[in-house]
Amino acid sequence: MANFAGASFEDMAFFAGATFGDYADFSSVIFGHGASFCGATFGEEVRFYEATFGDRATFSEATFGDKASFDRAVFANSLSFGPLVVRGLILRHVCPATVIRLELDCHSSSTLL
């Protein structure tokens, strides 16, 4: 279990290539200048509930388990999800925006372009 809930990163946070256990919690984390999760591997569940991403958030080539929750996450500037793999779900393009609710809970193969 990786618990970063409530943490604050002033500079760009680099988790590129990191491997997290079955559960990772980034709830209410503030990523001041953003975060890179490029190529990161998450276990069964990861939560970014009310996380705030500053300049940019990148999840390119990240792999998620059964559930990736971005409920009430805020992306202030640039957001990149693609390509992203969530148990067979691949997101190639997602527009940057403030996300009120984005929850990926996938058990079947799907592709969104």
**Main β sheet profile:** 5 strands, mixed
Structural class: mainly beta
Helix content: under 10%
Helical region count?
Answer: 0
Give, in spatial order, the strands making up the sheet with the most strands: 1-4-7-11-16
Distance between the termini: 32 Å
Helix and strand pattern? EEEEEEEEEEEEEEEEE
**Whole-number average pLDDT?**
79
Report strand %: 35-45%
Radius of gyration: 13 Å
How many strands? 17
Oligomer: single chain
Low-confidence stretches: 88-96, 107-113
Coarse shape = globular
Structure overview:
The structure is a single chain. With 113 residues, the protein is mainly beta. The protein has one domain (2-102). It has strands spanning 2-3, 8-9, 13-14, 23-25, 30-31, 35-36, 45-47, 52-53, 56-58, 63-64, 67-69, 74-75, 78-80, 84-86, 89-91, 103-105, 110-112. The strands form four sheets. A five-stranded mixed β-sheet has the order 1-4-7-11-16, with no helix packed on it. The termini are far apart.
What labels would you give this structure?
113 residues; mainly beta; 17 strands
Can I get a quick summary?
This protein has 113 residues and is mainly β.
